[in-house]
Queue: 3 jobs
Job 1
Amino acid sequence: MARRDILILPDKRLRQVSEPIKKIDTGIRKLVEDMFETMYDAPGIGLAAIQVGTPKRVVTMDLAKKDEPKQPQVFVNPEILWSSEEKATYEEGCLSIPEFYDDVERPAQVKVKYLDLEGEPHEIEANGLFATCLQHEIDHLNGVLFIDHLSKLKRDRVVKKFAKAAKRAAE
Ligand code: K1U
Ligand code: ZN
């Protein structure tokens, strides 16, 4: 297992639309192992492959609380089949936008289909943080960041701050 570097805003690769996975081979299994190591090390509760620079439609997640055993989950080619009219607001963060958090309103429940690492199809209905995290990660697969759900004023302010930091780091 190896920890991989996480892409940080305004890295343009975060805006790429990720490709569906056609075959779950050793390369994908290694990618998933590395994503878990990277996610646990960060620490985070979710990670999309594009955040480590690989534009493939795979997500890792673990919503276990600190005092609970690990609950690693993998979603290959996840797709939202249905979203509720009811909305829920969570304070979201993103490992690609470190130390910035804000409230985002999204559908409170979603139905999602995906493949597991054995290629078996599943359909789940999610609510609460699980629904929010799935939507946040599937957004990543489509090149969408949680700041895109904020006002233009807030988004521009965050992008400007991170662009400035990237410029300073490159000097
Ligand atoms: O995709 C990511 O950037 C990961 C992100 C997932 C997420 C968080 C909150 C709402 C929706 C999606 C994170 O994991 S940010 C870090 C975080 O939330 C956290 C870290 C340690 C303990 C508990 C939470
Ligand atoms: Zn994120």
Job 2
Amino acid sequence: MTFTPRIFSGIKPSGDLHLGNYLGAIRQFVPLQDTHETIYCVVDMHAITVWQEPEDLKRRTYEIAAAYIAAGLDPKRSIIFNQSQVMEHAELSWIFNCVARMGWMARMTQFKDKAGENSENVSLGLFAYPSLMAADILLYKSTAVPVGEDQRQHLELTRDIAKKFNHDFRKQIAELGFEEDFFPITETLATGPAMRVKSLKDGSKKMSKSESTSDLATIYLLDDADAVAKKIKRATTDPEPLPSEAAGLESRPEAENLVGIYAALSNQSVDAVLAGFGGKGWGAFKPALADLAVSVLSPIANEMQRLVADRGEMDRILRDGADRARAIAAPVMADVRQIVGFIR
Ligand code: AMP
Ligand code: TRP
């Protein structure tokens, strides 16, 4: 069976977008538009697996969609929409809840990390989350998904669900005349060197929205130029000058992080950056990084601000994306209902 090469990915509107989300995810989505059919979702139904203030949920949903566009996704070429507008996601996830096994779900490390000691008190949705993610992907028969390292296990589960569905219903699939592999075995897409941005205050932690030790640790995509420059200039470093090649960054996590950010923002290798800065001190490097970060991030922040201020335009884009998503999803869902034996 040949499936249309189709990319699906999503980000959940559960925290304010930061530099890690941009370099590690959103920016990687852009070039795929040239080679694939691309669907980029704001997964609001995933966000509510932990409590979200409804007003914040709305604001962040608009902000992520705006960030997609500001970073270079074209809403005409890519399908950009919020998950809850296409109800087939919920419908297919219920069927997958009945395909996936408790034991598979219980092995998910992200659930274990998030639930921690408190597993009796988290939502049922948080446990079922990977089954909804499998539905997001398979509803469009997506062939590849670009995501960060932390999502690999969820993609393995997606493949397990696809295989079990194809197997359990093989008789109906054949009788109804569908291809034997009704759902594809979706691959995890490695999008260049996986960029892991670390906290500006502690090189052992990843940059995240939950980093609470200091508000200087995280660069948010909506930070203004002064805030970006200030956070970089106050970033924690060691007293040594910069090395002349990448090997010299070993055991220097803060230095490695800042040089890595410079390399990513300027589309150069770490060695190329160090060829210019090797032997120099932080007093020379930090202002250069601050200028670079402002020059890349300010236009994105400005475009995001412009877009989120225009709710009418954003609503139109999201509705158009949802209509195009539904046009793919609805026929797949109709086939699934038949396969499962639902009368209609
Ligand atoms: P999250 O913010 O955890 O919902 O993640 C959304 C997307 O951004 C996922 O694809 C993550 O892999 C990616 N991401 C989150 N934090 C970082 C980071 N510090 N560095 C690189 N990628 C990140
Ligand atoms: N679980 C992903 C995350 O936390 C978000 C997500 C939901 C997703 N559905 C998806 C990513 C489908 C890729 C494909 O980052």
Job 3
Amino acid sequence: MSVFEAPDYDGHEQVVFVNEPAAGLRAIIAIHNTNQGPALGGCRMWPYASEAEAVRDVLRLARGMTYKAAMAKVKLGGGKSVIIADPYTQKTPELLHAMGRWIDGLNERYITGEDIGTNPMDMAEIKRETRCVSCLREEDGGYGDPAPMTALGVLQAIGAGVERAFGKTDLNGVHVALQGVGNVGFNLCRLLSEAGARLTVGDVLADNAERAVAAFGAEAVEADAIYDVEAEVFAPCAMGSVLNDDTVGRLKAKVVAGAANNQLAEDRHGDALAERGIVYLPDYVANGGGLICCEAEWYRLDRDAVTDKVKGIRRTCVEILEAAADQGVATNVASDRLAEQRFRGG
Ligand code: NAD
């Protein structure tokens, strides 16, 4: 198969295919763009059914990181890596060390981190072979779990959306329907509750939803019923592709902002939301707080400055909303254009 002609190839700077049978390692590292700094993006471990599927995933994810980094205003570019293996049965220290050596060979052009199928302990193993790792635990020299900062960023996006949709500058009394009370979702529930918002939550794991009921007096609904809640805001914090042909028409909310990656099943669902008068804050902008944390960890920036920078996500959201209105396009399109101006500007 040809990479340069693959549908998801978008001028990526470098795509590295790794094969080290002795360590059980088959992997692909994709560097999309380094105009703003070294390419940062997680390492996904997944038993892809085919090489083509792995190539598609790594190209798409690396490109997405460039856009996210540009809008988070971090000195980083976009990259990603995938290891073609089952994380439950095939992950070994030898495999992770081998991956670390290949990453190290890229001379700080790519910095890895955790993703689906890998965790902070795996990053500590990779770090034995390279310093190009982020999302490390504090005991391993990192800045710890980025989820609280991701949640703080989503809160900014919700604030900007509520102001645009309702002319309200705070979240007191605003009803938020939150999908997925995991690591980010629970932190977001706390921040929303402190801001005086009313919460309805849905999670496929009832115990996770119950945590928000017990801690913040949230109301819990069946996971699939979350789309139908009569709330002002819908905050997707679970899976991707949740804004699709089946769900957009069901939403009662006038604002959508959440942590989940790739919320739009297809770009046209951004138009579908706009046509329904729903203010959509693009996922990769709303959830950029974690990346701001990773930037601080990599460059050893002052940790207190991270909070201020994450709060800047609100201003970025306002910029996107204004650009979308001026250009007469959906917010996801306006956001992509702004990101492209930034990273192509060099
Ligand atoms: P997590 O695994 O801790 O939480 C996900 C939660 O969603 C779990 O409680 C899970 O039970 C629930 N869930 C799964 N499928 C669901 C469904 N169909 N309906 C309702 N609930 C469902 O993950 P997380 O770290 O909180 O991340 C949440 C999302 O945000 C993910 O898409 C992740 O990629 C994205 N994200 C996370 C970070 C971060 O800092 N952790 C940063 C950027 C983006």
